[in-house]
């Protein structure tokens, strides 16, 4: 702080305040709009109605299940790949980075069109083969695995970037070799020596994936499934107050989940001990 | 000189190790034997294959051909985690998420030693490296020297048969480097563990090792005790790499060489050409003031008990000579002097084109 000029010192709170207003004013307005009904005073009617509306719980649970599955798929796919890349083929990194960024440049509409085409192969060409059953299972509306696969692809750019940043901060090769010379096999070295030091990066990758899955609308809607985001749009159509209440609620749900994830990630013995140890002389 | 080996001390043998990376040849047929309980320093210029050799013994690198033997058993294809080799790395390699005790206890944990037992062992080892009171610290709370001590304790935790040190001191400042290198030597003697110590600091190698192996271009140039390496280098490369060496033009006459107006016996092989370079240590040159001579002192450097003079000879060759400081006091840069070699056998080398 000492090095800051008075001008910077004055600007900081100002910028922070402006940014805060930019986010908070619409939010506050939304909340007021949903709870302050003209002629009836303060009421939480809009919110209780949502929870009572058909499909609320099923769609929310579906979204959470999809998010959990997507996080698992993305991490199981990316972590070994990223570590192997660092250890074995550092020169391939730009290639992998480019591939992982591809989903950013493909518009969701095009992506869905592609998925739709592939899904149509099922009934058109494979109806006599056992593979047909796989195609049916992929699209089971109770748990559409095809969405997990699609989301895993869409989350790749974000998750990859988060992991890469984490890997950059640790010397993976040395950690693995140190663990191996201490008698750990290759997989154990990865799990006991590298992963604990990537906790922050894994959390970030999980956060971003979770946020993406909870908010994703286009792909789910066009493929005809009904996770939380699609349900919100469907129920909010006619009723102004309820539609805003639903948005506020979905925001809250996402926040609570992110906080819960952060809490789970930070509350580990290692982290706690590190914090207390810092205080001792 | 070699300390009495403990029952577990191992013999290590490299046999014709060869390894290429793309177009670079890291090892070009390395042969080397390390005796049980010996501390052997691998010395050589950057890129000569020291780290590659060490990593092959650790199991992190596989040779294209040749083999690595520990106590006569071929371990070339044994994976790293079953090699029984403790390693200290050049870069800081402690596990950042574990405190010192858990870092040292990592190996025993992998071998399924009980928690209480492995923590007792870890505390003992931390005591051995002088960090008994720092067990609950995390790596980021330690200085570089302390981190390398913990790394040493961690490498010793599984009672390995071989200890591998890859420039463990190179990231440390000069003073810490000196104390830690003495400490490594003390601990190594105490445990009598066969140790390979990679360094490119010749002073470090000469002062700590039982024997020093000088490498060049992926091959062994000479392996000998420090005094022998310094006093009787086998090749011109070793002579110039270990200690300071001046090259002075000379002329061969059968088994003798004429240099600076003196005839000296030739030590070892002589090249075919008659015009050669004679290799002379600074302490083997005498310098006396002589106004009539055309050799001149270019610079003087005070080294404590001795002073090193840089002298430019009549043919513009620059040589280094060490004089007792009290004798050198009478001389200054710019003075005309005579330079004479002491009467003893000298190494000669082909004159570079
Ligand atoms: N994994 C690798 N890929 C490509 N080349 C390598 C690899 N490891 C080593 N080399 C090359 O092999 C040669 C020997 O390397 P090595 O690390 O063994 O040298 P060194 O003697 O330890 O040198 P330094 O004193 O600089 O550490 C060098 O030319 C190096 O560039
Ligand atoms: Mg090296």
TrEMBL record, chain A:
One of the GO BP terms on file: transmembrane transport
Transmembrane regions: 58-83, 95-123, 143-163, 205-224, 244-265
Cellular component aspect of the GO annotation: plasma membrane
A Pfam family this chain is assigned to: BPD_transp_1
Cell compartment(s), UniProt: Cell inner membrane; Cell membrane
Residue ranges of every copy of the ABC transmembrane type-1 domain listed in the record: 60-261
Provenance organism: Streptomyces filamentosus
Membrane topology term: Multi-pass membrane protein
Keyword vocabulary terms for this entry: Cell inner membrane, Cell membrane, Membrane, Transmembrane, Transmembrane helix, Transport
Lineage of the organism: Bacteria, Bacillati, Actinomycetota, Actinomycetes, Kitasatosporales
Main location: membrane
Name by which UniProt lists this protein: ABC transporter permease
InterPro entries: MetI-like, MetI-like_sf
Family, as annotated: Belongs to the binding-protein-dependent transport system permease family.
Organism domain of life: Bacteria
Automatic annotation (TrEMBL), chain B:
Pfam family, one: TOBE_2
Listed PROSITE patterns: ABC_TRANSPORTER_1, ABC_TRANSPORTER_2
One CC-aspect GO term: ATP-binding cassette (ABC) transporter complex
Gene3D superfamilies cross-referenced by the UniProt entry: 2.40.50.100, P-loop containing nucleotide triphosphate hydrolases (3.40.50.300)
UniProt keyword list: ATP-binding, Nucleotide-binding, Transport
Keyword presence, Transport: yes
ABC transporter domain boundaries: 12-242
Matching InterPro entries: AAA+_ATPase, ABC_SmlMolc_Importer, ABC_transporter-like_ATP-bd, ABC_transporter-like_CS, Mo/tungstate-bd_C_term_dom, P-loop_NTPase, Transp-assoc_OB_typ2
EC class (word): translocase
Annotated protein name in UniProt: ABC-type quaternary amine transporter
Gene Ontology terms, MF aspect: ABC-type quaternary ammonium compound transporting activity; ATP binding; ATP hydrolysis activity
E.C. number: 7.6.2.9
Organism, scientific name: Streptomyces filamentosus
